[in-house]
Amino acid sequence: MHLSAPIYRLKRNARDLARQQGIPLHRALDRVANEEGYQSWSHLASQAPQARPAAAVLSRLAPGDLILIGARPGQGKTLLGLELAARAGSLGRTGFFFTLDYHERDVRQRLSELDLRPSADARAVHVDTSDDITADHIIRCLERSGAPALAVIDYLQLLDQKRSTPDLESQIAALRRFVKETGALCAIISQVDRSFDLSGRTMPGLSDIRLPNPLDLSAFDRVCFLNEGRLGMADAA
Questions:
Q1: pLDDT by residue (tens digit) across 98-130?
Q2: What's residue 162's pLDDT?
Q3: What is the Cα 167 distance to its own chain's centre?
Q4: Where exactly are the structural domains of the chain?
Q5: Under DSSP, is residue 147 helix (H, G, I), strand (E, B) or coil?
Q6: What are phi and psi for residue 162, nearest 5 degrees?
Q7: What is the pLDDT of residues 160-169, one digit of tens each?
Q8: What is the dihedral of CA 22, 27, 28, 29, to 10 degrees?
Q9: How far is it, in rounded angstroms, from Cα 75 to Cα 97?
Q10: Is 50 helix (H, G, I), strand (E, B) or coil?
Q11: Torsion region of 117: left, alpha or beta (phi above 0 gives left; psi -120 to 50 gives alpha)
Q12: CA distance to 99, 108, 114, per residue, from 126 (Å)
């Protein structure tokens, strides 16, 4: 069955319910799950279609992939990126999360909101919130780690914000060379243009990616889009 909202929103609804009615969170979670047609929250989390989009994404990745994750605000693209980093260990990799948009405490808080299975470890994610994040900075960090990496970058448009940094095309080209040479995985979160909201379509596409400056999106191997609790994934070419 299809969820009425993405799982992270349902969990937020349960938190609100617990506060409003003064009941334990686990009871509120189960009540929300019952309303969605599941026996309990654990039943929903383990079996609901699209409840675990990260698992679906990870199952389709190959060493050296450069991935684009796009969505409008509030659709869960940041949480998907965080879960990918937290689940890097399932692929024998170390998870990294580079963000120009959040403080580390915010990232850790959002990681704590994920319903992670035992195979994932949010505490093991390396979080970098440096103001100096660029492709070169990311590559240096991954090289220093010496471990197979799954890196998530939040987000594409902010890489292009400073005039002192290389242009976006050059940065994406550098990241692509690096992952191809090392077998690393790199997912980059992206904004989707607000015109998509009026398009009448159920899922964004590459033409909806907001690009303040030119970028050849064929540099990406795979693209993932989120909308209304659904995940769409395809090869970029």
A1: 999 999 999 998 887 776 665 667 779 999 999
A2: 86
A3: 23
A4: 7-47, 53-235
A5: coil
A6: -100, 135
A7: 888 889 999 9
A8: 150
A9: 19
A10: coil
A11: beta
A12: 11, 10, 16
Residue 8: the pLDDT is 72
Task: Please report which helix (H) or strand (E) contains residue 235, including its range.
Answer: strand 230-235
Angstrom distance (rounded) from CA 230 to CA 213: 28
Distance CA 237, CA 220 (A): 8
Give the predicted TM-score (pTM) of the model: 0.83
Place of tokens 């940041």: 78
How would you classify the pairing of strands 66-71 and 94-99?
Answer: unpaired
Q: Where are the alpha helices (DSSP H) in the chain?
A: 7-21, 25-35, 41-47, 53-58, 77-86, 104-112, 135-145, 168-182
Closest CA to 8 of 82, 59, 70, 103: 82
Spatial CA neighbour of 151 closest among 121, 115, 127:
127
Distance (Å, rounded) from C-alpha 51 to C-alpha 20?
Answer: 25
The domain 53-235 is placed in CATH, from the list 3.40.50.300, 3.50.50.60, 2.60.40.10, 1.10.10.60, at: 3.40.50.300
Nearest of 170, 161, 171 to residue 212 by alpha carbon: 161
Strand partners, 69: 189, 224
pLDDT < 50: residue spans in the chain: none
What is the CB neighbour count within 10 angstroms for residue 154?
24
Q: Is the peptide bond before 155 cis (omega within 30 degrees of 0)?
A: yes
